[in-house]
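Attaching the record inline, Q. Sequence:
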Amino acid sequence: MLRYNLTLSTANRSTLCICGKQNDINHTLICKTGGYVSLRHNSVRDTVAELLSSVCKDVETEPQLLSVPPTLTLPNGTNRQDGARLDVSARSFWSTLDRAFVDVRVLHPQAPSNSDKSISQMYAAHEISKKREYNQRVLDVEKASFTPLVFSTTGGMANEASCFLKHLAEKICMKKGQRYSDVM
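Structure, as predicted:
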């Protein structure tokens, strides 16, 4: 719409969010109560699952993780909670028959929590946070791999998400006989 110099109507938009704060674009992108945080996350999760379904086996959205044995020692910060879930799992992604788990995070660079970081620092911090929470549990309990998929609301992505999507594009190319440049 902006390309054609059309204006967006504000007539039907409230100036206050359901949480009580001023409803502007930055607030909408970070508010977990009235914003689009869950919708945005779930849209990315579902797109990843759909693409994985075209090239992998046993693709599952929000698979429940196995319980952590009480005797297993995991690093501090690891999610040990029964019923914990990751966003997507699939077989035969990184290697034949191995199970791969991914978890999506979409960060907003203009969020107050990111104000003192460069974009590369933001991506690294969010990847490290996800890995601290799940990586060792997935390796030791699920006997699988874990990849955090960190994206930003401005269209960028962290290193591991980039590697994941490049590998996914290669798998789609091989299966469908398409050129890599067309898939990416």
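The CA atoms of residues 16 and 23 lie 5 Å apart. Residues 1-6 have pLDDT under 50 and may be disordered.

More tomorrow.
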